């Protein structure tokens, strides 16, 4: 009975999310600007043109067919010690993450075209670990922690005064990596490994042993580790980027929230986000983990 109730709640949440996303795909006319309820917005869609209803229904069905989460492997140590605490190389893969899909239309913004807003809450909260697209390169993804959101002011603490640097506007988020160790430590590690590789390549006996027993598995050199040292350092700087480099991100850049980390078959567990987000993810996570065979 508990499992049945959980699945019923899971699909009701999925259906509500699909409705919210679908409302963004249609034009709703209104006589008065302001904030309206979800049900009123749905009523306006249903009494609208047939083509509008068709787009709306197709979008709902499309959203319901998509999984609520996806699994991705986190590379590097930018989020250590929270995630990938055991990974020392910035280019090595580590934990597999279960990521809940988030749509920008469930965030705090005008979710229907025109002047009507029917749904207003942040997409993420302070403390949430999210997957974001690099604002300067949409093909690149980062895992970062939300430390400030719309309405917050970022300040620079000085000896005598605190100077306001930036006030986050509606739908903006400030995201940072957890690992704040100086980048020089990783650069030094790259230099040491490059020197070791150069020394090994100059050793004929070591090369003969490598030919007899190819280096495969966790110790094998990855493509990024075969790059010239200067390119590795440049890639390292890119992989450590956060809002201090590219500024605030918007709801458009947030892909999902990290809700579960899988280190190995026996070591896995929930990722700590803000209390509100963890409560909202409870049912989604329980059902998704069953589908992944994790519980």
UniProtKB/TrEMBL annotation:
SUPFAM superfamilies: LexA/Signal peptidase. GO terms for biological process: signal peptide processing. It comes from Cyanidioschyzon merolae (strain NIES-3377 / 10D) (Unicellular red alga). This is Peptidase S26 domain-containing protein. Pfam families: Peptidase_S26. Residues 74-259 form the Peptidase S26 domain. Signal peptide: none annotated. GO terms for molecular function: serine-type endopeptidase activity. It comes from the Eukaryota.
